Amino acid sequence: MGAAREMVDRAAETGVDVVKFQTFITEKFTSPVDPARIARLKQFQLSFDDFAELAERARAKGLMFFSTPLDLESARFLATIVDAIKIASGDNTFWPLIECCADSGKPMIISTGISGQDEIQEAVSRVNGRWAAGNIAGELALLHCIVSYPAPPEQANLGAIASLKAAFPNQTIGYSDHTMGLDAAVAAVAMGARIVEKHFTLANDYSDFRDHQLSADPDDMATLVRRIRAVEDMTGDGQLGTMACERDLVTPVRRSIAAGRDLAAGHVLAIDDIVWVRPGEGIPPGRENEVLNRRLNRDVTQGDLIQFGHLEEM
Fold this sequence. Notes:
alpha/beta; TIM Barrel; Type Iii Antifreeze Protein Isoform Hplc 12; 2 domains; two-stranded antiparallel ribbon
């Protein structure tokens, strides 16, 4: 519990929005056939009172508090203290757990690792069905995830983020990252992820448990937050048009119709007489038909921008 408290405190210093834990009763989510595994998991098991304290600690530091339940009793408890419930990839077909969490009315996040579109659709449909039956206006997010620890970067399959966005346009789409380093998480934001989950450790050599090696330590997490915020700033609103920083350059970089050589008054303009030059202070490309076959009312010098005032009335 001391380490958990410190992790909340250190996470808050990095600038993250949320801390997330896993909540479980060991005997209710893993088979007793492996006593060594049971003993190991019990070392990580915190009490419900511990989680209530951690939730309060997180909120006192301006963080939201999420957790992943691994059994129904834990799910029912978490519904009383969390801001959102997360379903692990391995449990995205554990329908009793999913429906229990949906019945709570809490916002839900489902990781989609090891699942195809049909399985993901069933999870979404079951959640929405429970919410409809309970008249609950719920919020559901889906996270692309590769269930490998660590996930090879060449198998991160970040393109699946776009696939999820297309297949589930009513859901928030994010990414749960199990790769080493920070690049995949940052790239995921550039590809449209609106939630990023990254494992967190106080130190990568904290123990020989495999998650520590693929997790971000406090310095890494702070760097990740900075990089993600930078990508968010760069992404903008996606609207096509002129940005504020471009406005002063519109005229200098646009083109105008100009004289391609010295031309005397009375000359009738032909296509070979004109060129298109910067700046865009004259007649723009696309309006050549308003210039060609018209007679000049004055001399113009090569390079001069053709103006309508240089032309006789039609």
